[in-house]
Design goal:
heterodimer, A: alpha+beta, six-stranded mixed barrel, B: alpha/beta, Rossmann fold, globular
Amino acid sequence: MTALFRKLLRDLLRMRGQAVTIAIVVACGIGSFVTLRSAYRSLLGARDTYYESSRFGDVFAQAKRAPESVAARIEAVPGVAVVETRLVEPVMIPIEGLAEPATGRLVTLPANGNPRLNAPYIRKGRMVEPGRPDEALILETFATAHHLEPGAKVPVVINGVLRQIHVVGVALSPEYVIAVSGAQGFAPDHLRFAVLWMDRDVVAAAFDLKGSFDDVSVRLQPGARSAEVRDRIDAILKPYGGYGAVDRSRQPSSFFVDSELLQLESYATIAPAIFLGVAAFLVNVVLSRLVHLQRPQIATLKALGYNDREIAVHYLSIVLVVVAAGSLLGVALGAWLGRGMLGLYQRYYHFPRFDYRLDADVVGVGVSVSVVAAMLGGLTVVWRAVRLPAAEAMKPDAPPTYRRSLLERMGITRLLGGSALMVLREMTRRPLRTLLSCTGIAFGVAVVVVGFYTRGALDVIVDLQFEQAQREDLTVSFVRPVDGRVSRELAQLPGVLRVESERVVPVRVRKGPRFRETTITGLSRDADLRRIVEWPRRIVEVPEEGVLLSAALARVLDVGVGDSVVVEVLEGDRRSREVRVAALANEMFGLGVYMSLPSLQGLLGGAPAVSVALLTVDARSEPQLDARLKRLPVVAGVARRREIIAQFERQSAESMNVTSVILTIFGCVIAVAVVYNNARIALSMRGRDLASLRVLGFTRQEISSVLLGELGAHVALALVPGMYLGKLLASTMMSATDQETYRMPAVVTPDVYALAVGVTIAAAVASAFVVRRQLDHLDLVGVLKARE
Amino acid sequence: MVVEEKVRRSLRGAQGRPDVTTERAAIGGGEAVLFARGLTKVYRMGEVDVVALRGIDVELFRGEFVVLLGASGSGKSTLLNILGGLDVPTSGEVRYCDHDLSAAAESTLTRYRREHVGFVFQFYNLIPSLTARENVALVTDIAEAPIAPEDALSLVGLAERMDHFPSELSGGEQQRVAIARAIAKRPDLVLCDEPTGALDYRTGQIVLEVLSRVNRELGATTAVITHNAPIAQMADRIIEMSDGRIRSVRENAAKLSPADLRW
């Protein structure tokens, strides 16, 4: 070990507090990168492997009913490699333990049990045997939620007929990696969404679709253009009620997986960038101080014959050791958190194999980027150090120049005491340092804000959706649209306080080539229980004529008020009409469409009918009423608002708690690292002055106020920009999430701000406490004697 | 002393150098290792030019012990820095053997310092985070055929305190570590800037004795700058400076041992 290397180690040991805090910031940077990147790679790897092995389709299309012979025409489209036709039918599963029946899809399997595309992966049990009318595979998420094993019997309503289906196998599907139907809310509901696979002949018989298909998946040849193929398929299926082909990116489950990947990618850039930026700043500040203190040592090394390169390497090696320690910690932390994140993903994303993978290049890139960031922080300092002429460096530093600041010249500071004046001068003398220090602390605040933002925003959503928009206690859905009298009869039931009814119709809304499947809700103009509420909080009246679109849907379709859209009704006679967009509402959830009840009736034709009744009830009689309603033959299901809210909060809390805790720790790390390092440096720079003050008779309290006052001022200055930065970061990160299912309002609730500020102040106070203790042990004589 | 004998022998043996004792005989009419002509140095301090050297001609001969005497501000430190390759003159010529140092690049000066010059400073300039032995090792790590740090420290009488940090050593001991560090590379030149300036009389004397012995036994050309006139009596030659000029250069016929110096 060379003497210079020993010096390096001893220097590090001496500044261990600072070295450790910087290493931890670097660790957070690399840690967040490794966590998010490894999660990304794991998800990507699992996705690609599974999509390939299960022969997941590239293009999907539905039709009302097409003869099997059409398949050959699709197969003939240039670019098409494989075509798989099937039947996909809606089913209801009135399983025990649920208020309303679970909904689901019945997907057919070819006679050989092995579809050419979208092959289910059997986890347990066996494949359906051809021709067995009562056998089915069931989607694993639903099976797990209801503790269904192969051998179980499940009641399924198939085309209006209740049948007991024998579960022979539990399966996964590339189409339901995340179990969403596409029409649901924002989170997969494993309890209420099921997929069953049954023999095609059995299903065809039940739905009277022998020799026909209503769903087709296509695998493209390499290099084929998806858009052209989709146009051809649309043309072929048009006479058979084709709904328009979509490519894989719009397949609901695939869409969710892809948007998660996109989000991970953006987080994996933002989070490490913040930490490494802070690390670079800290390296700069700490190394500047070190180099300054070691000016005479640098001069000596030069006099002894060390060249510029050797001296530069020496100081950069100090940075390297810190980064290396941080990297080691960061990679370990990242691998651990990444694994944890994968554990969370495994609950939502279902692949046959979903293994954690930590690629060497992820670690390599993480470490290299950190090294580069830290080096950027240190390079200018080291450059200055080596440029220092040896003869000059031998001489002690000239006293720093101070000037009366503008504030002082304005006379404002006459109101301030001596300590405050010293604080002010110190800050204005080094405006860049002050600015960077405040920026660092502000990022600490911002990271905590981001950590808790979603929680606050979800409270806003819950309030908007469940307190302002959906105000009923019970939602009663009918098995089919019924006469309005039915809901008036419900009002006669004991405990019912108020009844309103609405009509909900599945539709496809289209403008040119753009379309989305959603529902139109027909509301009566005097509706009070179900209202359209937009953000910022405002109640929007349903227009008398035309449709009201949620702003998100209007964006998707690229339409505005006054434009017209085509509404294709997906039930009954499936009529389609052109309707004028009368209003937009900036709703937080989904892609809602609203019409007044009379104009929806006009669109649908036929006798006026309602499909949902909304009830407010006496809380005491709610359980009895719930049970009684469920026994009515006309009632398909009853949902209790309180349960919906509870479930929503349960689902969102789970993943958010982990994120919040991690981000809060990260935020604290930044705040502590910045405040502590600033305090240490301030102490080192001002130790002499402060000791002089003590010699002059100042108390410990008084000199603390000079030193800690400056830090306090930095923190105080950083709080408001930090809050703003947090809001900015939060909305940037939110914009990377799927905007169609739900939109987080760009609002940070006061409690989130309070929390972030509190956490930062606590971190600052803790750091100040450590430095204060060192201040109390200031060696008065020693400091005055030392040259520096 | 066993160690000193070992050092001497290693010195004679190394790199086929001429025997230092025979070389010593050449002083006076001998070979100039350092040669300067018309050196000037002007510093720019804000708005004003400060002239530190106003045309210096000087030579240092192999193996001699020179004292540069002058009041503070006379330009002697500036001269020493230029001779040692820590600084370059504004004009004039400096040569070490046949190397021109006057307009040399920083890398050349660094190599010159590394291979040929040992410095001793008024404030010792030890690295506080390194022990005595490690401070010397700083030099032996980069020198081509150095004396072992232990041997160098023995030579200055610090064999017992090798593992002490500078903060645990007295001023005189620190300066002796600095001397050990300066000589460990077996320099051709030892340049000392007020080596006793921060020391009391007694300690200063010990340090000067060490310097004198090192000069005697290793044969390195030694230049000591001081404002303290009595110290000049231990030199082979005395160069007096004032106001950036050389006032006189004289041979010292009555050379005293440091023990006999009084100030």
